[in-house]
Structure formats: C-alpha cells, structure tokens
Design brief:
390 residues, alpha+beta, globular, disordered N terminus, 3-stranded antiparallel beta sheet, 17 strands, single chain, 5 helices
C-alpha cells in the first residue's frame, strides 16, 4: 500500500482583533480600564491557540503617550481550518516488529470513554469530571480553558474532536509507559487534531496526555496501521537528527533568540507558532519603548512534562512535547485586572506586575539521522494556565 501524506491546504481563520486585555493601568495618566472587544470570531477558541503572523490585524494598544487600553495578553486567537483527505497507512510491518500494546477495539473504547468524560466536564466547566481520562498537560490546559470561559463573557469553548478518528497509531508492546496517537477526522470544518494517549503502567487505563491542532500545509508523515505497532522512541535515542528528548530545549533556544545556532536544525517555513511568537515579541518591545513606565515581555521556558513519541513508516519520529511561557506586564501605576485575573490571583488590583502563564503542546516530526532533513513543527495548542499579580 503506498504511503499517503495527510496535508492541510486550507487557509487560516483569524480573529479581527487580538485577544482582550486583562488589565489596564490607572493613575496620574487617567487611563481607562481595558475591556474585551466584542468583534471576536465566534468560531475561534481563545485558549487553544495555534498562532500565526497576521500583519493586517491591528493590536488593541496604540503607541501614544496617553494609552487608552493596555493588553496584557495580545497573542491573536487563531483557528485552523480542517485538512482534507483520509490517510492510507502502511499495513505491513518492517522486519520483526513487536505486536501493538493495545488492540484497535480497546483503543476505540478508550477514545469513546475519553470523549464521554470530556462532554460531561465541558457541560459543567469542571475539570474534576475529566477524572482519570485526562492527565498531565491535557488536564492542566483543559482546566485553563474552563477558567477562561467561566470568567470571560465572550469566551467560547471548542469541543475536542476525539471520536471517529481517521488514523490511529499504537506503540509496540513492552516496557511501560505505552503510547498511542489519533488523528481526528474532518468534522464541520474544524481543525484536524492529533491526540496523544499514555498508559503509565499495566493496571492503568490509557489517558489523554495532550493534543495539538495541525498547521495549514504541513504534511503528516506516513504511519503504521494500529494492528501493526509503531516503534517506541526513547528520549535519548541517537537514531535521529536530534535526540527526541532535546527537541523542546532546542526549539526554546530559537524562540528566545531567532539567530541561535539551533535555528539551522529546524524547518521554520510553515511554523505558525514561532512566527507569531517573534512578531509579538517585537510588538511588545515597541510598546515598551513608546510608553514610559510600562514594560511587556514574553519569556518561554522548558516544561517538565516529558515526551510522547512514536516512529513513522518513513523511519522518522513523531514527538509531542510541551513548553511554558509567561506574558509579563510591569507598570509604575496601579493595575486594574480582569475577572479572569481576579479568579486566578484572588485580587482585584495589582500593585505593579501582572503575569499570565501559558502551556503549549507541540508536535514535531524529527527526521532520521542521515536523512538530510530538518526538524519540523507540525502543530500546536496553547492555553492560559495561571496568572499572578503583585
């Protein structure tokens, strides 16, 4: 059976304005509190962001001496239109592959049970109802999304398209943890998602560990059918152009410094997340320069969530991992903060600093050593997971 690459060709759907400010500075400059714009694209999930540069979108801040609105979080909310096509996966094993760690019927049951838990928790906006079916980054990020839709009037919660996947990947049987992935089918124009599941030990259920939305135009690699196990990939494996466990740190180096030597290891041509991150850093630097007494910054950091990694039919590795980043606003004036910030901090105002913390899930294709190819980010998901004020 020939390999078939799942490709996203649809254009981005971008909101008409960046996400609402969470604070405004008040004091001698007589600055008005920021308010959330009402012209949001209702189809966009503000807390599950797959950013892309958008030079036509005007930020809610203006570089004036008397600033009317001060955004603390201005990463544009972006949705990805669904990719087309159903992947034809490689059906025959290469060599003496061990059997899959879980059969297709059981994995489909796991996905259905995960979806049932998500539906109940979504209706109640209560992450406690996600129970053992969500773990790690997935649980933290979904809780952050519940917080936002609970405390922001115009925020909306997108559903996770777990059921009826168009592709399943199952890791080989053997030592724990066991991994599996699914690729969602096209559902009502919704973005294609890739979900990662983990079974930590023999008596544990598979649980949703993380998800991403695929970027437009990326090609999803060919993979084995679920009845033919996908190779398990170790974090320190030397079979790839980069150790899978080191991908997050190397990518972080590029986010911090676009000229870092690690940039030569990545194909950034379709990387919407990096493009937006660099654009926002430049905007915040300009905002700081134009407004005395204000400072804005974006600061990424490596998370401690580990990786979920499976091999492809092309001998590459699919590696899902995470990063954290913080958006910090510092002012020499008192900060009035939003309902969401108040819910996180337990305060109605901040003395000088407000910090918004994000967690980002990232899916990379890591080529095999000697392939001559570079590491590519295929998709991402982003959620606010905490805020602090002082």
């Amino acid at each position: 059976m020939p390999n078939h690459h799942l490709t996203s060709t649809s254009a981005l759907r971008i909101t008409t304005a960046p996400r609402a400010p969470y604070a405004s500075a008040t004091g001698t400059a007589n600055l008005d509190p920021g308010t959330r714009p009402t012209n949001l694209d209702p189809g966009t999930r503000p807390t599950n962001l797959d950013p892309t540069p958008n030079h036509k979108t005007h930020p809610t801040w203006k570089p004036l001496k008397r600033l009317a609105t001060l955004p603390v979080a201005a990463l544009a909310a972006v949705g990805l239109a669904a990719c087309g096509g159903t992947p034809s996966l490689v059906s025959s094993p290469a060599g003496d592959n061990p059997p899959p760690a879980v059969d297709t019927t059981r994995l489909e049951q796991v996905i259905a049970q995960t979806n049932q838990a998500a539906q109940g928790a979504d209706a109640a906006r209560n992450s406690a109802q996600l129970g053992p079916r969500f773990i790690g980054p997935a649980l933290v990020m979904r809780n952050g999304e519940y917080m936002q839709v609970t405390h922001e009037t115009n925020a909306s919660l997108g559903t996770l398209p777990l059921v009826n996947p168009q592709a399943l990947l199952v890791g080989q049987a053997g030592a724990f943890p066991h991994y599996a992935m699914s690729v969602s089918g096209p559902q009502g124009g919704q973005s294609l998602h890739v979900f990662a599941f983990v079974q930590s030990q023999a008596r544990a259920n598979y649980a949703l560990w993380g998800w991403v939305k695929l970027f437009p135009k990326v090609k999803f690699p060919s993979t084995y059918k679920p009845e033919v196990a996908s190779p398990n990939i170790q974090p320190n494996s030397g079979d790839y152009v980069m150790k899978p466990g080191a991908v997050a740190q190397n990518y972080l180096d590029v986010l911090v410094d676009p000229n870092h030597k690690s940039k030569d290891l990545f194909d950034l041509s379709l990387d919407s997340f990096n493009g937006t991150f660099q654009s926002r850093k430049a905007q915040y630097a300009q905002l700081t320069q134009d407004n005395v007494g204000l400072q804005f910054s974006l600061n990424p950091s490596v998370a401690e969530d580990g990786i979920v990694a499976l091999g492809t039919a092309d001998k590459d590795a699919l590696v899902m991992t995470t990063l954290n980043y913080s958006m910090t606003m510092t002012s020499d004036k008192k900060l009035e903060i939003s309902a969401l910030a108040q819910a996180y901090t337990g305060k109605s105002t901040a003395g000088s600093t407000l910090v918004e913390n994000h967690k980002v899930t990232l899916l990379f294709r890591v080529p095999s050593k000697g392939s001559g190819q570079k590491v590519q980010l295929l998709g991402a998901a982003d959620a606010i997971v905490g805020m602090s004020a002082n």
